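Co-fold these.
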Amino acid sequence: MNPAQYVWLIAFLPALSFLVNILFGHQLNRYGKRTGAYMSVAVMAVATLLATGALIQTQRAAPTWDKAALKDVIHFEEETLFPLEAQLRSATLQGAMQNRLDEIKAELHHAEDELHHLEELAQIRHPAENFPFKSEQPWLSMKGQEGIPIGVYIDPFAAMMLFMVSLVCLLIHLFSVEYMTGEDRYPTFFAYISLFSSAMLAMVMSRNLFHVLFFWEVMGVMSYLLIGFFYKKISAQQAMKKAFLVTKLADIGLLVGLFWIYKVFGTLDIPRLTELAPQVLIATPGIATAIGLLLFIAAIGKSAQFPLHVWLLDAMEGPTPVSAMIHAATMVAAGVYLMARAYPILEQGNSLGFIAAIGAITALFAALLAPAFTDIKKILAWSTVSQLGFMFIGLGAFGWIAAVFHLVTHAFFKALLFLCSGSMIHGSGTQDIFKMDNLAKYMPSTRWTFIIGGLSLAGVVPFAGFWSKDEILLSLKHAASDNAGYGVLLLMAYAASFLTALYITRAYIIAFEKPSEASPWDEAAWNQADFAELNMTKADLEADAKHDHLHLHDPPHESGWHITASLWTLAGGSVIIGLLGSPLFGNAFQSFIYKGSAPHIETIAAQIPGFIIGTAIAFAGITTAYILYMTNMVNITMPKQITQLLHKRFYIDELYYKFMVNPLTKLTTPTAWVDRRLLDGAIDFIAWGAGFTGNILKRVQTGRLDLYAWTIAAAALALLLGFAGFSLAGMGGGH
Amino acid sequence: MLSLSHFLVLAAILFAIGLYGVLTRKNLVGILMAVEIMLNAVLINFVAAARFADNPQGDLFALFIIAIAAAEVGVGLAIFLNIFKHTDRVTGEVLMELKE
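Predicted complex below.
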């Protein structure tokens, strides 16, 4: 069966499980506390199976490439096609003669034919007839207008994303079954995360950018609800509002970008846009740049890039499985997905350099902050921001496949790390790594899976993160050979990699290997300043502890099978997925995703220097962390100003308050007066008037039915006589 | 041969009977029955006009009125039943107590 016919079920089933859980969740609980939860796990399992089927079928239908011949294709693209495109672009901009333009266009056309020929030669197996899988239903079409057709588009990229998202979401569902036990709104939680997964899956399979926007916004709402799941806490309320407002601000970019795309192309259909982009935008790189930047603004917000990263740290107010979901499979992945989908448009403009620069700034900046925090979830949050920066570096350095590869591997190891942190919090009763007491002794499964996730994040051979990060650095190196600016970004990326290895090792050592500095709930150990900053009171904290099922005075303990099973599965994914994209397995991942835009496929020999540098940096980071935190050989105390700067996150939140929130609040004071006095006054006056006339007229309402009937009858008779007299008079006049 | 006027006169008579009932009856059920008679008078007008003008719209209106009259009787009787439960009477005066 054609996957296009059944993939909709992958998104539809979790949406159904949302409805059942939200409407009948508490009734279902009568058949056992976890009935609704297990139902949504089962539904996600079915969705994952369907996604696996779609992935296998896509893999069967997709072309396979001969690597050596593919190198010829890429070489031809770089040496002949791209210069011709550049020539045409500059000729158009300089207003060259028409016949000169036609000449270049003809040449370009010829080169494209040649490219197609080369591509066909490079295919060991040609793609199937109906590849990539599509379906289309008319929607909102009126009188000959196309409307916005609804349908799915399953190319290798979408199939890969469907598989990754559904699998990671399934494991997070399974994890939550145990983790959220005892919560008042247990069914509601499962309803929310089901709809969250459903929206992400639907977005990934949509063929129309309008529906991408639609599901993008559904995710925005779900993240709002989930971040504020513990809505009784003031800090959670603030975090949910912040996340929603910041991402909505960025979404304006997406909306305007889509309007512009529709104006230029007359369609929002992804396959058609991909096809048309080079022809339509070739002569107008300015428009391509502008559209690219607008879409990038949306991605900055959704994927928490500098300077709109501020919401992500506060989003840690949500329950830990939600953090895992937001940070791995959904939400932040959506921004990268959008960029990768819009890549054919981005390629035509000049926004890529900017994207790479923002990515590099974010990657380095977040990696600098991560070692300054002691809350395990916040360390991982900064780590996500930093890793997303790497993905945008990849996108901006002409390696969108590398970015997608990193997106997928990151989803596995970051979900793993977050679920580990959940398990650590569950077992030990605190989020502060300094208060976690020698967890290695008590939580073996969590420890080993954390090590796998951490090594993957740090980029150590042969774990997933190594291969994908290496691929990004490779694209960056290629880009740097043409443009010195990318060289600077490469150095920043190296620095960020070093810090990544350092902060994750620090977190591991302090949480797992060292005894705690104080018992978690020791009054004296409270850092008053921290709580003041968070607007938290002791009562809040205790509520917090209850939410996370902290057993305040028990020793740490290993979590149950739901949690460890999800951890080990993700750990397996963190190893296998990376190997699929490694040269050891012939870059299977990259050539699967490949569709006519250069991946830098190299022989193993050419990649070895990169491997050595990457590994060296990772080990340098790990060793530094070991020396600093394990051995106590070196004891560095940071100057107070620097720690203060890091704890305040470079004062970026304060800047937002100073320059946006406070001026807006001031601006609203006079408008609030107008609203309260003038507008509300007018409305009150009208209401008063209605009441006044009503008071006068109510005397007529005697309540005596017979009187009403007589009045009606008399009035009707009077009307009748009046009409009769009028028409008689009229007839008389007519004669 | 029946002409349009025959029907109109029949309808007018029925309407007058109904109106008389509404004006003189004290019992709410009686008033409701009288209202139904008036409605049926209008129905006859519609159907007759439709037949003589050869335009099916009148028939359609008649169908609508029948359906809505059925619903209206249901609602009306339910209200009367409740009034009866509260006051043991079903006369128009009872409703005066609803005022303010």
